[in-house]
Amino acid sequence: MDLPIAEATRAEFAHSTAYLNTATCGVLPRSAVAAVRELAEAAGAAVPAGFGDFDRVNRVRAAFARLVGVDVERVAVGSAVATHVGLVAASLPPGAEVLCPEGDFASVINPFVVRGDLKVRFAPLESLAEAVGPDTALVSLSAVQSADGRMADLSAVRAATAAYGVRMLVDATQAAGWLPFDASPYEYTVTAGYKWLLGARGVSYLTVSQEAQHTLIPLHAGWVAAESMWDATYGPMPQLAGGARRFDESPAFLAYHAAEPSLALLERIGIEAVHAHDTALAARYRAGLARLGHEPVPGGAAIVSVPGLADRQPALQAAGVATSARAGALRASFHLYTTEADVDRLLDALSAP
Questions:
Q1: CATH architecture for the domain at 34-267
Q2: Cα angle 243, 249, 251; round to 5
Q3: Of 132, 181, 182, 129, the residue nearest 157 (C-alpha)
Q4: Which fold has domain 3-29+270-351?
Q5: Cα–Cα dist 331/148, whole Å
Q6: Lowest mean pLDDT segment, chosen from 2-11, 54-63, 122-131, 268-277
Q7: Reported confidence tier of residue 15, pLDDT bands at 50, 70, 90
């Protein structure tokens, strides 16, 4: 483990399990727990600090913008990825074709499917770029597949969409936080904040390119979507915010107060260092699986999925090794608080009859 990561994990994490399940939910750092406790206690004491802090929400917005390489004016905040995707789905005309990878996460697909008047077409992830055509209006895909860690060839898909003038929506939920991810090439990106970004449920991010901001109608606009929030608390909104903040939802303050120290921790360590750490542990696990005669889904992500081993997950959990069962496979995911000892503990458990 790199020294900066080792120092950060000693100070910030207190769990006793071999936690290999960040692809389901990340572990809150101690500083995030303290921020939640401080806000909750203030709310319970009926003091103004318990109302929540919009300045803190905007600092979180700015930190996320830095993390994914876009101007802060491109970032809207919300509570769930599906809500952001639904906003994009609502912008499409009837009959528009949406292209998605087969088996992608439901939140990236269902908002288009349930409309009922869109043509939703599926193609294998590996050949998605070749499936883009002149009738495609939007490609919606995850940068990293939740089920098994397969990584999309985003540059190839972007080249194909650019050739046909097609918009692109990328879900970075299983990427941002361990994989260096640049949101700037895409019209839309969505990211949940409670996995690799070490936050809590209730935080999500939508980025919208400046050119694409006119394509979306802020259908759930409340007073927080106004240019001047405190002048828009009653009656029709005088003026929408000029940037992507017009697509904001009212923030879940407990979750956003937790997000600020979590994102600050990732910034202090650096995503390149986190990426090197996480993928080295995933490679160690893959090598150990090979020695045991197991064949994981190929790839180089921090998520490793082994078909046929899903039934081992309950026993591993009982033994203090947290993994998940997804799509018939045992899924393990490695983040900055994972150690080589955690990987070896999982391998030892899998080697037992």
A1: 3-Layer(aba) Sandwich (3.40)
A2: 110
A3: 129
A4: Aspartate Aminotransferase, domain 1 (3.90.1150)
A5: 7
A6: 2-11
A7: confident
